[in-house]
Write a structure and sequence with these properties.
The protein is α+β, with helices and mostly antiparallel strands and 605 residues long. The chain is built from 13 helices and 31 strands. Helix 12 packs antiparallel against helix 13.
Length: 605
């Protein structure tokens, strides 16, 4: 049995676009985990979406071997996403590690998600190794960024490693620091098996493949195992470790990261965060690695063809295996038929799920307007949690409504503070704090409704700051608000898929814009279509799409009339020209001209 002294489990955490994936590439190169001929950029980002967008969407675990002072060490690295919408992936990775590489871009400094991910790591008592990346770039502010890290972590300047994921500067120092600073896993190899599932994927031939981290005990091929949360028992048909491809092993030891295949075909039989133990000698404690996901944004997903409903259900089940932060439940819509009400961590998360459904599962879907959840307090009865405005009771039966509020953290340069304040105030935000981290970086804290950032907040923030702003947020609870339900009517009939909950002060403008947009999108029919926005029985906006028709008299008016006159006069000139060529006597020509003029007058009349 191998000693735990030679094991190191760590992850990389940073803000988006600070060079996590590139640094991971260099670590794989230096440890000879990947052959030089197989090397490519963003090696651990194996989805097409990740490569196209240049972001990490899924955490990726990989094992590396490193020789340090004549001793062989085994590293389990987990490359994590940087965007706030994928923070659940980060939390699962952190729960499986003892240390973290905190990466900060030398040209950008500390960003909002850097701080957010750092707090996640500190909550799990991880050892932090601060690294300044991209030190080879012309715009690198090495000393200034070091000051920021010292203020944030309370470490010494000597502990900060200067590196470049692109050129390989400092990679050897990072690998040495992993051995020296990150503690080895703690656990009892002789205790009952206690392993936590931190991720899973679906394979069409093998079924569900679960990735786990062992905290106590060990597992062998052929062992009878039990998944504590579901109570199901299976045989470990295959176990192994995670290299670039999975590699089968007879035993996976305590403290290691590995995978297990048990022949599970149904996605609902496994849950990320569940504890694996042995049936013969079960553990008495389950692993509590991370909290259940709390969706922020809700939207309906419906198949283009109602016959594809069951295929969409299967696709969502398999996708949920790979993305545990996706939450869904069946629902029906009068306009769209059978579909699912899905919960997401943010708008980017929603967009990525839509793309993955189309690319990986060949599902063409319709997504309704994103909404947040609300608390409804009726005059009589208990509080109701609403994910869909269609479930809202009659307004006369409601005492009040509460909407979710967030604490947002924006880090930017001082020149954009005024623009950001105007934007946040327009979104009903309340400024709670303003701190100058350095002379060139300021941190703004706002409390604001989550519904206000769902639509266009992030795009507008990036636009007014020319991209020099980072944004992070966390839930702080529900607060009462003057909210109304805005219904969209087509020829007097409510379209439930277009209904929205909105603050009363913004309902009129929003309704008017929505009606105008629908007028552009809805094609003309053989009848008139009235598009109306209504609050209860009160119509607040209206647009009308006229009926499609063929106007046979259109050429008699306006420009059509002018063209007809011009054509007739041209015909008249041609006729007179031909007549004047000596083909007809003078009297006959005059007679012809008189007839043409009479015809023209009759036409004009």
């Amino acid at each position: 049995m191998k000693s735990l002294e030679h094991l190191r489990n760590f992850c990389i955490i940073a803000h988006i676009d600070h060079g996590k994936s590139t640094l991971a590439d260099r670590l794989l190169e230096n440890t000879k985990t990947i052959m030089e001929r197989d090397m490519q950029a963003q090696l651990l980002d194996d989805m097409d979406l990740e490569r196209e967008r240049g972001i990490t969407i899924k955490s990726k675990a990989i094992q590396m071997d490193y020789l340090y002072q004549g001793k062989k060490y085994v590293f389990n690295l987990i490359d994590t996403p940087g965007h706030v919408d994928f923070s659940y992936e980060v939390s699962r990775s952190i729960a499986s590690c003892e240390g973290a590489l905190l990466l900060v871009d030398a040209t950008q400094g500390i960003q909002a998600q850097t701080i957010s991910n750092l707090y996640l790591a500190l909550d799990h008592d991880l050892e932090i190794i601060p690294i300044i990346n991209k030190v080879d770039m012309d715009g690198a502010m090495i000393e200034e960024v070091k000051d920021q890290i010292v203020d944030l972590l309370g470490c010494t300047r000597e502990e900060i490693i200067e590196a470049s994921g692109k050129t390989g500067i400092g990679i050897a120092n990072i690998l040495n620091a992993v051995v020296e600073r990150i503690p080895c896993p703690k656990g009892d190899a002789d205790a009952p098996l206690q392993a936590m599932i931190f991720d899973s994927v679906f394979n069409s031939f093998r079924g569900v493949i679960a990735y786990f981290r062992i905290f106590n005990g060990s597992i062998k091929k052929g062992d009878k195992v039990k998944f504590v949360n579901t109570g199901k028992e299976y045989t470990a048909d295959e176990i192994g470790i995670l290299k670039m491809k999975i590699e089968e092993r007879d035993t996976v030891e305590c403290g290691s990261v590995g995978y297990i295949i048990t022949g599970i075909k149904q996605a609902k039989e496994i849950k990320v965060g569940d504890t694996i133990t042995l049936t013969a000698n079960p553990t008495q404690e389950i692993v509590r690695g991370f909290e259940d996901v709390k969706p922020m944004v809700f939207a309906g997903i419906y198949p283009m063809d109602s016959d594809d409903f069951e295929d969409l259900r299967d696709s969502l089940e398999k996708l949920q295996l790979n993305d545990a932060s996706l939450v869904y439940e069946p629902e029906t819509s009068i306009a769209l038929g059978f579909g699912f009400r899905c919960g997401f961590l943010g708008l980017l998360h929603l967009e990525i799920i839509n793309e993955r459904l189309e690319r990986e599962y060949d599902q063409s879907v319709i997504i309704t307007v994103p909404q947040v959840s609300y608390h409804c307090y009726p005059n009589k009865g208990e509080r109701m949690l609403l994910h869909n405005t269609a479930d809202l009771p009659d307004i006369t039966l409601i005492h009040h409504l509460e909407e979710p509020w967030i604490k947002s953290q924006i880090i930017t340069t001082p020149e954009f503070v005024g623009n950001i304040m105007n934007l946040c105030m327009d979104k009903r935000g309340i400024l709670t704090n303003q701190i100058y981290l350095t002379t060139t970086r300021v941190e703004l804290s706002f409390e604001m409704p989550l519904a206000e950032i769902v639509f266009d907040f992030y795009d507008r923030l990036k636009s007014i700051t020319k991209g020099y702003a980072s944004f992070d947020y966390s839930m702080i609870g529900y607060r009462e608000g003057d909210l109304v339900k805005l219904d969209i009517k087509l020829n007097g009939e409510n379209v439930d898929a277009l209904s929205a909950m909105i603050h009363r002060d913004k309902a009129y403008d929003f309704g008017h814009k929505l009606c105008e947009k629908l007028k552009e999108l809805i094609p003309k029919q053989q009848f008139v279509i009235a598009i109306q926005a209504a609050i209860g029985a009160k119509i607040v906006a209206r647009e009308t799409i006229s009926a499609m028709r063929k106007d046979v008299t259109a050429k008699c008016y306006g420009k059509g009339l002018e063209n007809r006159r011009r054509d007739d006069m041209r015909q008249f000139e041609v006729s007179t020209t031909r007549a004047s060529c000596g083909l007809k006597p003078l009297e006959e020509r005059k007679k012809r001209i008189t007839c043409i003029r009479v015809s023209i007058k009759e036409f004009l009349q």
